[in-house]
């Protein structure tokens, strides 16, 4: 075959794949870009670090900061009988805050971020890069050369290697790990429902404290009105008002800390003795089962900790750590100690301890700030829920839904209409259905502790595979985490019938949806993979493909990053004509947080030049947004045109069929290269051409040439010009988007539960989710759907 042809099979490494690196403007203002670049370089001035720490208060700590509104009420729903119980509960709160948010999350878990991104799926993506545990096997070795595809290596005889091999050995272990991640994700979605409910209802409860004649239903109505307003405003985004979040939350922390100091001084300074763990032992021994079940209320003091990790991507870890240790942690300790001091003298006021302990002179200002803080906490949780669903969508674990980018400056701010309204309906149903904080608190506690257990399990693998920790350190971390979290989990089990069933039902529903969708996605991909058309069959058809080639470009969308999809053979078998140029387009999501624009596209030729067939693989990370505009199509054609120019430049440059132009070139050398040979106005393009074995910037084997030596230059330029003119004429003639509509059906011999899963549940999800044509912004007048059915 000539130098422009390639056998497009995974097993054949001859020919070339070309990576087109284009520097494109990011939708981000100069300030955000500067902060992002400084974050990547891990270089911060002291002043900038303090500024970022201040801003993190409004985004990261709103949920954790509003816990004092409802902790003591949920700990003692039947009232306080012995003041010593208050001391025991306070001691439990102090050590819970110290062990879980401070030591585990802020100083350990936050370090397990994926290039700054946090959350359950970020941990899973990090693991997928260190072990072959991804259930959709669509990765290629070229993906590992991405600048964001960072991973560590280890010796094959190490404990990490043995753990990796154990995970990779059986598909059941990969599925078990995926289910664990999905369970954690579903519980985070449950947090997105329960956090607004309990936070806003608790804040609105301040009306009843100052006006005892107001009924509880009025408080519920006020909370519902606030929630409807909150969810209705989501489509505007928070870009315009987010600058207010940090000052409000900082003021909130200063207020609760100051009120705590006032109450300790006024009522009982003896509560400071609760820093002794002896009071924990006395409390549990004295109360027996009642004290044990009250742990379900105590653990609400650490709610919001998982949201802390999920929202980590907005700020550097050091800024989050400074904000917690300097402001959040001491303020919370003072707030809980102050409430305990007040309850030591007023044990009958446990049901509304927070508002009762506020001095009368500042009651209404604190009430207003508390309501605003509750709204901010709810907003942070809703944003985290949308973000994690976007991640699940990118990794093939959630049905296709509409994702709207609400900010021109920050890519992380998104709005998902369908999910937003579902969350609102469920949140209102929980608020109006339970009416009291106790049952909502029980539900909230169940969701939080299960998420923490899932994070602990993932962290064990992170410590082994990524950090290569000694097994003693892994054992110590696992033991301490499980002792605390399993203790709380055993306590919430006693309250399953008192509201704790709510997050379980919500999580079960979302888990069913996510797993069924993922199962169908995997089966559909496996079918595409196993039914690929052989290259020999394509070559046997000849340049005309056995039919009439009409002017125009056909974009055939496929999930395959290699090989010719069956949809193509199905199409040309049933229709007598095909476009003059065929481009197989694969949009692929990788287990990385983002793919730089300059490394987005992989382009390669399929077959000889006179076939005019190309493949373009567009790679995205789970935080990337596939925007709905004409930009994608323009970039795709620019990549193909540039590929043709470079291919012509490379012909005859060496005796080998493998040649490289490496991306580690200076701007000057790249510009000179383009100016001399490409004669194009694209001056900000990075170019990488390499073999299948070494894609993107890498070390050059000594046998390969370091520079270009053109031979038959005039002939090559003429060939290049002819093909470019041909491509432009075909583009002007029209572009048709060909999408496969693969229908999955259960085979006749399948068991009944598989038939229900595939023929009803998955089919229903496919019917209600967005079409691929909407995802890719394909105009209806140029859309062609090709249907096919396969049985699993």
Automatic annotation (TrEMBL):
One family name in Pfam for this protein: K_trans
Region described as Disordered: spans on this chain: 696-719
Single GO cellular component term: plasma membrane
Chain intervals with Polar residues compositional bias: 700-716
Keyword field: Ion transport, Membrane, Potassium, Potassium transport, Transmembrane, Transmembrane helix, Transport
Localization in the cell: Cell membrane; Membrane
Membrane topology summary: Multi-pass membrane protein
Leader sequence residues: none
InterPro entries cross-referenced by the UniProt entry: K+_transporter, K_trans_C, K_trans_N
Top-level taxon: Eukaryota
Main location: membrane
GO molecular function terms attached to this record: potassium ion transmembrane transporter activity
All residue ranges annotated as the K+ potassium transporter C-terminal domain in the record: 551-789
Residue ranges crossing the lipid bilayer per the database entry: 44-66, 86-107, 176-194, 214-231, 243-265, 317-342, 362-389, 410-432, 444-466, 473-494, 500-517, 537-557, 577-595
All copies of domain K+ potassium transporter integral membrane, residue ranges: 53-538
Protein family membership: Belongs to the HAK/KUP transporter (TC 2.A.72.3) family.
Function, in words: Potassium transporter.
Protein name in UniProt: Potassium transporter
Native organism: Corymbia citriodora subsp. variegata
Lineage: Eukaryota, Viridiplantae, Streptophyta, Embryophyta, Tracheophyta
């Amino acid at each position: 075959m000539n130098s422009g042809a390639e056998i497009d099979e995974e097993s054949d490494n001859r020919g070339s794949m070309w990576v087109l690196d284009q520097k494109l403007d990011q939708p981000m203002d100069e300030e955000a870009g500067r902060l992002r670049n400084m974050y990547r370089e891990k270089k911060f001035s002291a002043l900038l670090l303090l500024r970022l720490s201040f801003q993190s208060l409004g985004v990261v700590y709103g949920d954790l900061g509003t816990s004092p509104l409802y902790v003591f009420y949920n700990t003692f729903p039947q009232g306080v009988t012995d003041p010593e119980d208050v001391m025991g509960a306070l001691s439990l709160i102090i050590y819970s805050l110290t062990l879980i948010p401070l030591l585990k999350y802020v100083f350990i878990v936050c370090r397990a971020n994926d290039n700054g991104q946090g959350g359950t799926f970020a941990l899973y993506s990090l693991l997928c890069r260190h072990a072959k545990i991804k259930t959709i096997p669509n990765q290629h070795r070229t993906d590992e050369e991405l600048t964001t595809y960072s991973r560590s290596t280890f010796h094959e005889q190490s404990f990490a290697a043995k753990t990796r091999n154990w995970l990779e050995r059986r598909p059941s272990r990969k599925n078990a790990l995926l289910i664990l991640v999905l369970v954690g994700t579903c519980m985070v979605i449950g947090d997105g429902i329960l956090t607004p409910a309990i936070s806003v209802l608790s804040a609105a409860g301040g009306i009843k404290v100052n006006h005892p004649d107001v009924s509880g239903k009025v408080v519920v109505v006020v909370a519902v009105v606030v929630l409807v307003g909150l969810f209705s405003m989501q489509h505007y985004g928070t870009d315009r008002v987010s600058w207010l979040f940090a000052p409000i939350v900082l003021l909130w922390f200063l207020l609760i800390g100051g009120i705590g100091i006032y109450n300790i001084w006024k009522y009982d300074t003896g509560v400071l003795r609760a820093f002794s763990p002896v009071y924990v032992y006395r409390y549990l021994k004295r109360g027996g089962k009642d004290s044990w079940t009250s742990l379900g209320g105590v653990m609400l003091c650490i709610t919001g900790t998982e949201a802390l990790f999920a929202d980590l991507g907005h700020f550097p870890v050091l800024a989050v750590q400074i904000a917690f240790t300097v402001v959040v942690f001491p303020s919370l300790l003072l707030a809980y100690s102050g409430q305990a001091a007040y309850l030591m003298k007023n044990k009958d006021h446990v049901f509304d301890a927070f508002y009762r302990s506020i001095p009368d002179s500042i009651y209404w200002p604190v009430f207003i700030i508390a309501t605003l803080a509750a709204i901010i906490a709810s907003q942070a949780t809703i944003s985290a829920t949308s973000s994690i669903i976007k991640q699940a969508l990118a990794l093939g674990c959630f049905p296709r839904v509409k994702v709207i980018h609400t900010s021109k400056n920050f890519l992380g701010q998104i709005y998902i209409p369908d999910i937003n309204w579902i969350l609102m309906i469920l949140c209102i149903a929980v608020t109006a259905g339970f009416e009291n904080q106790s049952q909502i608190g029980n539900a909230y506690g169940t969701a939080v502790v299960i998420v923490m257990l899932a994070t602990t399990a993932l962290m064990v693998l992170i410590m082994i595979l990524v950090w290569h920790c000694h097994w003693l350190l892994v054992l110590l971390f696992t033991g301490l985490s499980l002792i605390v979290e399993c203790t709380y989990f055993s306590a919430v089990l006693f309250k399953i019938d008192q509201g704790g069933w709510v997050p379980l039902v919500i999580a079960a529903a979302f888990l069913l949806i996510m797993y069924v969708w993922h199962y169908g996605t995997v089966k559909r991909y496996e079918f595409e993979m196993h039914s690929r058309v052989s290259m020999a069959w394509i070559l046997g058809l000849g340049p005309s493909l056995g039919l009439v080639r009409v002017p125009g470009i056909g974009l055939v969308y496929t999930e395959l990053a290699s090989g010719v999809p069956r949809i193509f053979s199905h199409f040309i078998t049933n229709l007598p004509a095909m476009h003059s140029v065929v481009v197989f387009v694969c949009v692929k999501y990788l287990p990385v947080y983002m793919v730089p624009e300059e490394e987005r596209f992989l382009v390669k030729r399929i077959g000889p030049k006179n076939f005019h067939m190309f493949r373009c693989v567009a790679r995205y990370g789970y935080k990337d947004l596939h925007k709905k505009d004409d930009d994608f199509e323009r970039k795709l054609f620019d990549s193909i045109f540039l590929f043709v120019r470079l291919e012509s430049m490379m012909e005859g440059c060496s005796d080998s069929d493998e040649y490289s132009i490496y991306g580690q070139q200076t701007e000057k050398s790249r510009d000179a290269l383009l100016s001399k040979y490409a004669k194009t106005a694209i001056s900000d393009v990075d170019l990488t051409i390499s073999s299948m074995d070494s894609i993107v910037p890498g070390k050059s084997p000594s046998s390969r040439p370091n520079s270009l030596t053109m031979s038959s230059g005039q002939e090559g330029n003429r060939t290049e010009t002819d093909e470019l003119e041909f491509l432009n004429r075909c583009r002007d003639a029209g572009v048709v988007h060909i999408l496969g509509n693969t229908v999955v059906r259960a085979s006749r011999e399948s068991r009944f539960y598989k038939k229900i899963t595939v023929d009803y549940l998955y089919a229903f999800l496919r019917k209600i989710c967005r079409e691929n044509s909407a995802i890719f912004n394909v105009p209806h007048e140029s859309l062609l759907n090709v249907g096919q059915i396969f049985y699993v």
